[in-house]
Amino acid sequence: MTIDKSIFGLRFGSHEEISPSREELDSFLGSPKKEEGTERHADDLAIYRDKLARIDAYEQRQLHEVGQQDFREKVYYGVLRHSCFFNTGLKLAIEQYKYHVHAFTSLDLRKPASFVKSAKEELANLNPRGKDASAKRDRLQGMIDERKEVLDRLAKSRETLSRELIAIIGYISGNLTKIERLTEASLTAIEGSRMSGTGEKQEITDVKKQFKEQLKDALHEGPLTKEHVEAIKRDVDQLTREISSIAHEDLDTLTRLYGAIHDHVAKYAGALNGFVAELERQDRTTVDEEKAVFTRIEQLLVGLISDYQFPVQTAPLHSDTPYEDLLREKRNEMLDWIFELLRRDRRSRHDRRSGKERRVLDDPELKFPDRRSGKDRRTGKRRR
Fold first, then answer.
1. How many domains does the structure of the chain reveal?
2. What is the DSSP string of 222-268?
3. Which residue, among 2, 380, 87, 83, has the nearest Cα to 254 in the 3D structure?
4. Which residues does 347 contact at the CB level (< 8 Å), separation at least 6?
5. In tens digits, what is the pLDDT along the chain, a chain of 384 residues?
6. How far apart, in Å, are the Cα atoms of 338 and each of 2, 295, 316?
7. pTM across the whole model
8. In-domain check, residue 366
9. Please, are residues 220 and 308 in contact by the beta-carbon 8 Å criterion?
10. Of 12, 26, 194, which Cα lies nearest the Cα of 95?
């Protein structure tokens, strides 16, 4: 299924001077999280990285094994790809966040600041008449100036890293909101399909037409017995019921899967926005306070890509007619139809949005993504 490339697309406005190369990023990810520890930074992304690989491997198999699709996998990987939650853009953003937060937490302003304070106190208590007082004063002043330059560089690094981390948070949060809206729209479309029954009605019509054509062809070969015609009618009626039943079962499966993705993404988008609000409320935080917030956000991002449950359980296929293969074919066609409906709905919603309505999350001038107000968020009974 075609994915929406506007979700987790290119992130513009990043600080190029501190952006790591792929080699630097891989080196960092391969390093231990703690001194003398065995757990690496890359281990936090292992589950997500494995799922991305599985999705890619499945799609590659389908290119070479047409007609040999496992239905459960077709549902599962089709929804995962369409939802855009499993995306190399999100993976890269979290890798970069981890890289920068490690650099931020490594900043040590305490030592040079403590030295400057102690040196100033010593300078103030220096006896101006003492032996070598002038030389000692010059030496202390030189060391103070040197540490001040270090503090100035560290302060600039703090500001640059803080801006970059906040930009990454905004990028991730904004795109999670896009996924939340995509899955909401998908759930609405699936429910609309259930209510209208368009997909199953079309397949039932096709089945009836197919059997009518077969009966016409059989008549050219000779007269048909009443028993044979009645048997065909019974099979068609049974297939009709089975198509309707399996259609509803599969729509339920899609609803549960899209719903699970929606709730997971909404949960973490809300938590990220809470941290953003916390940073916005504070006019100026200390380095330690910023380190604490950024570290908690890192833990949250790791949970986003590892602490999820997207189970899929498809109903077993069985027909009480001799036409189980036909039922299987119609089931796959109905799934293709609903996926095409979801893809087309997503594209049309993009086309309906004017330039002023489009979110500009990648604008480098924006500090945080725009967020829905409290009255717009679904709560209580309005939640699924």
1. 1
2. SPPPHHHHHHHHHHHHHHHHHHHHHHHHHHHHHHHHHHHHHHHHHHH
3. 83
4. none
5. 445 668 998 887 777 888 899 999 999 999 998 887 789 999 999 999 999 999 999 988 877 776 667 899 999 999 999 999 999 999 999 999 999 999 999 988 878 888 878 878 877 777 776 667 788 888 888 888 888 888 888 889 888 999 899 999 999 999 999 999 999 999 999 999 999 988 889 999 999 999 888 888 777 777 777 888 888 899 999 999 999 999 999 999 999 999 999 999 999 999 998 887 777 666 657 888 889 999 999 999 999 999 999 989 999 999 999 999 999 999 999 999 999 999 886 655 554 444 433 333 333 333 333 434 444 444 444 443
6. 13, 41, 19
7. 0.81
8. yes
9. no
10. 26
Q: Which domain holds residue 108?
A: 40-372
In a domain, 332, yes or no: yes
* CA–CA dist 16, 211 (Å, integer): 65
